[in-house]
Amino acid sequence: MSVTLADLKVGEQAEIIGFTDELLSLKLLEMGCLPGTVIELTHQAPFGDPIAIKVSGYTLSMRKEEAATIQVKTN
């Protein structure tokens, strides 16, 4: 079973292992979401969308739909 960033709960950390959307992955790579990078889900809006993650020393906000394209391995 594949786990995605969208499956994490606030406070959980995970390591990026890949992407399912090639076009979106280019944008995410430019923003520091590289395979092997440890990320942490820091905030989630009341209805679940958008979310905020800590990655490469800064906070990145994204839609849950985008987060579902990032495959992760939980620690």
DSSP E strands, number: 6
Query: What's the number of structural domains?
Result: 1
Characterize the main sheet.
Answer: 6 strands, antiparallel
Low-confidence stretches: none
InterPro entries: Fe-transptr_FeoA-like, FeoA, FeoA_core_dom, Transcriptional_repressor_C
Keywords: Iron
Protein name: FeoA family protein
Domain Ferrous iron transporter FeoA-like: 3-74
How does this structure look, described?
This protein has 75 residues and is an alpha+beta fold. It has a single domain (3-74), classed as Ferrous iron transport protein A (FeoA) (SH3 type barrels). 17% of the residues lie in helices and 41% in strands. The chain is built from two helices and six strands; from the N terminus they run ββαβββαβ. The chain has helices at residues 22-30, 64-67, and strands at 3-4, 13-19, 38-44, 51-55, 58-62, 70-74. A six-stranded antiparallel sheet has the order 1-6-2-3-4-5. β3 (38-44) and β4 (51-55) form a beta hairpin. The two termini are 16 Å apart.
